[in-house]
Amino acid sequence: MQTDYGSVFAQHFMQGINASAPMFLQFWYVWLILIVVGVVFLGIKIVKQVRLADSGIFDIDQMTGEDFEKRLKILFTNLGYKASLTSIGPGMPDYGADLIIEKDGVKTVVQAKRWRVYVGEDAVRQAYAAKNYYNCTEAMVVTNNNFSNMAWNLAKVNNVKLWNRPYLIRMLLEEKEKLQGHK
Predict the structure, then answer these.
(1) Which one in 57, 76, 87, 158 has a CA-CA gap of 20 to 30 Å to 114?
(2) Alpha helices, DSSP H only, in the chain?
């Protein structure tokens, strides 16, 4: 009969730990699991930060409102839309829309809000009103932040599309993938 020295060693090792080690070492496998889980969560957080940096959202957070509008024009163009800015100059009225985009025969007004706080329902009202002014079929508000609950509710009732920060990041990454695919 052969002796399995590996299992004999493991059995004596475990008995030695259980008998002489402090209590926290007796449950070494719990510590191992906690360390593995911690490393996994840290890895996920790092991957998310890299994706955010790749998206360009941090650059957008530092832009002026006018630069954000220009960046959205580039984004929509790269996503296959025909895009144009509505403003004819700084300080000139835009009647609630910063861009007009068109794709597959659907013409949409876009209200751009590069804000540090949540965007309220007033932006939804502006986009909805601009839809008729610019003779469009759809309306949209795009922000680098998020929307208040009232804005979400008003947008739903009035069929105004909302692009919040996570969705904008997704579209920025989609744009990047399309551009890399064309190289």
Answers:
(1) 158
(2) 5-20, 23-26, 28-55, 57-62, 65-78, 121-133, 149-158, 165-181
